[in-house]
């Protein structure tokens, strides 16, 4: 059912330049995607258009050129560096007599190859099912359809309808299983919150060096390679930060330009680690000429998963690929670290990273002394739920004196939820 690649397939690559920035794709990145999928590149058919052709996506003349290239190179798959509609895929396949795969399906296939955990496999399958549900008709054109009239009546349910029903049932089953995984993740997060262990999450464009940095910081052996989407399944490790204590570091899947929406939706459970983190370490390949565009794409995905308001520390990685760049910490006007320049691969600037991290996490924690009157027992209960009370005693009037320690983000959320009345009980 799925358009899964076999290693060693011979592919014709198709790339178009569009004046519209939202439709433009990067050819070099596309070639890395093709290589990551284990497909051999034969040649690239490129061109320029103002808007996609409704029938072939490319113009009819360019479509004939692709068909000739398929025959000339004896290719068995055509890879488009763009997202195609089901009808465009069908029309190009009919013209070229060759299988057509668009950018979205290619990324889904890479994810399917890299998934290792049970959760990761379920998430990828759900994304594939969502994507392929609109393309089922291509696989069943040879089967009968419902028709009216004597001698033309088909069965009560066509094969296409049967397949759609089975597909819906499978998607429902996967969602239920992913919900169970999410419950387990929530239990783990609650346990970490009770233990007052903050979580920091590595985010960034794919192949920015997140897993290499993760391995250096945690002495782990997470798979790291110079390829797109080397990391798919999230990994959590505990590290010690001087002045802060134990911290959970999460390595997550890398983002990419025009990341398929089905993938973002399917991986929301995994990306919750990012949304609930105290601090995001935004890893940037500073040697990449497209670093500014990559940063914009990461910010776009963070907004989509509702993690754009989480504080960030930018990690300018791979400075060993540049000349005359030394490890350093950049600070804002208040002296707060906002960027760290380092090289995870060359082990440069790691001590500066820990220094900046200690400063940022130290400022993320607030300490307050509260004087709560007897009629505010509910507020005291809310504080106990957050497991943030470090000391408690009562005076002769029945007032509860509390010392609380909690992340600044949690404190601001509490102030907002309590309509600011909690601030009136803070002892100065």
Automatic annotation (TrEMBL):
SUPFAM superfamilies: EF-G C-terminal domain-like (SSF54980), P-loop containing nucleoside triphosphate hydrolases (SSF52540). It is found in: Cytoplasm. Mg(2+) binds at residues 211, 231. Its main location: cytoplasm. Residues 198-365 form the Hflx-type G domain. Keywords: Cytoplasm, GTP-binding, Magnesium, Metal-binding, Nucleotide-binding. Its cofactor is Mg(2+). It comes from the Bacteria. GTP binds at residues 204-211, 229-233, 251-254, 317-320, 343-345. InterPro entries: EFG_III/V, G_HFLX_dom, GTP-bd, GTP-bd_M, GTPase_HflX, GTPase_HflX_N, GTPase_HflX_N_sf, P-loop_NTPase. GO terms for cellular component: cytoplasm. GO terms for molecular function: GTP binding; GTPase activity; guanosine tetraphosphate binding; metal ion binding; ribosome binding. PANTHER family: GTP-BINDING PROTEIN 6-RELATED, GTP-BINDING PROTEIN HFLX. Belongs to the TRAFAC class OBG-HflX-like GTPase superfamily. HflX GTPase family. Monomer. Associates with the 50S ribosomal subunit. GTPase that associates with the 50S ribosomal subunit and may have a role during protein synthesis or ribosome biogenesis. This is GTPase HflX. It comes from Litorilituus lipolyticus.
